[in-house]
Amino acid sequence: MEISDLYQLFLQCPRITTDSRNCSQNSIFVALHGEHFDGNAFAAAALANGSAYAIIDNPEYYDPEDSRMVLVDDCLDTLQRLANHHRRTLGIKILAITGTNGKTTTKELIATVLSEVHNVLYTHGNMNNHIGVPLTLLQMTNRHNLAVIEMGASHPGEIGKLTDIVEPNFGLITNIGKAHLEGFGSFEGVKRTKGELFDYLRTKEDGTAFVNDDNKCIDGMADGLLKIKYGTADGLYVNGEIVSSDPFLTFRWRAGKSPDYTEVKTHLIGAYNFENAMAAVAVGRFFGVDARHIKMALESYSPSNNRSQFRQTDANRLIIDAYNANPTSMSAAIANFKKINGENKALILGDMRELGVESASEHQKVIDMLVEYGFTDVMLVGTQFAATENSFKCFPNVVAFADYLRNHPLYDRTILIKGSNAVHLEKVIDLL
Prior knowledge:
alpha/beta; 19 strands; cell cycle; EC 6.3.2.10
């Protein structure tokens, strides 16, 4: 079946599912493959559970007598091409966001600001990969007039593949840092892959990049594109400065050289969120959101999913940033924690994953930073930190650490919790 014919089925049944347990009436089930499963095996169950059609790519499960089954060469490729066809048909303006750190927070802030005056489709949760991106695009309707699509990558070429599916009109790279080095091979590999977003935009006649002027690496990567610049320097499209970040970020911004500043008091923890908020200001202003509504949107946003969250418990004050970690974000979080006022500071840090051959040296650099800053109340979770030269408390995993906390509870501390999601530091939050 041609994509154009399959698209007609999609117009009749515009909900796509890849889970045979979650099949609403008149949905289309797409049989994807995982490391330990073959979605084709669940096609019949999906039809029985309510799906109108099942797209499969394994002839073993195909019943030619059942008109509800559609056999294709590759289900994932079909899903991606269907999403691209849908994107082209609607023709909605799309902003694509990638970067090492801050891309999810930036996406959330931008979507919150734009939603003040626009009907915005945006990436939910962690659906920023080769499956999540097309599924997000297929949720787009003619009621939307803008889309904000987050793109993640852990290997070379992945951003390029996603841009071919999304065909964005605008791009924003939050930053370039040391993450997924096991997959990318080096920092330069990270830079090249993230830069594939701008490479795509350079093929467009009106390709436009939102650029943090304070990050000269990103600025150089955007050469050849129309640049909408934000940062701290006077005269940019929008410029601003941090008022305070103790612990919540308050900043002010203005357009160009206007004498009038708008002050914004956020619920975000950390000075490192300033550039994320400024990106939202720049994008919002570009798409016609006035200063008053930008302020309202940013001040109403509360982070979730263990990202830059503050929580006061009966026992302690917690700064929770345990969704993910890499050397760049870990250093920024520790530096910010050093600056904020707080009694009896303590740090709970988990391993940084997927750093490959640089893992040992990068974990040791974190230890050296902690020593340099004079931190003494530090608890480290994971085998990588345990292998470093340090005098802090070390635990092989979160289970062992949780057992320790039950027998040695912490009280009256200001605690930074930071680590890779795979370490599962969120499991000890209720013990703090």
